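User: I'm curious whether this sequence folds into something compact or stays loose and floppy. Could you predict its structure so I can see for myself?
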Amino acid sequence: MTRQPDRWAELTGGQAGEGYAERFARLAASGHDIHGESNFCAALLEAPARVLDAGCGTGRIAIRLAEMGHSCTGVDVDPSMLAVARREAPTGEWLLCDLTHLDTLGLQPGFDLALAAGNVIPLLAPGTEATVVRQLAAALRPGGLLVTGMGLDAAHLPLPDATVTLPDFDHWCTEAGLTLRNRYATWGGDPYRPGGGYAVSVHSRSTT
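Assistant: Here's the prediction. I'll summarize afterward.
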């Protein structure tokens, strides 16, 4: 059975790794803070914590969190992105997998935090979003956190139209045993207002 291509693969053809890394290198060289996501997550954790970076890309966030003392596992479906991650952090745990089949990796459950940044959820294959949320929730320990960042309009996505709404996303999270704790408009913690084009959400897994 042929796997339905995700929206990221349709956009990039699975060859975006080097270009993606170069983009962030240019941003860092020009003085931009490229560690907003990792700083946000670190503020929620006590080191050492176990972090699952789902859709880790080139490893930028996981590498930074590892430098902060956390144990990170990066998973991505794009080999070109993982090639960069493995080059930049050869001792890191970088796994090639479609997030809909995360349970096939044999990962030890009980992660303290699962992260899906960089529009991971909106760029999934259509119809797989609820499955991926369930997979991420199942990887968490009771009380563990799912942290996501996603564009909600064309201005915040590499797509002509939004693919996910917050009511739908929160419904998938509720079905997976997750409860919304906080929502922000940026990784810097700016408050989210209804109708905003970007949302950073923190959900927690039920402790029962």
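Summary: The chain has seven helices and seven strands. Residues 152 and 166 are 8 Å apart (CA to CA).
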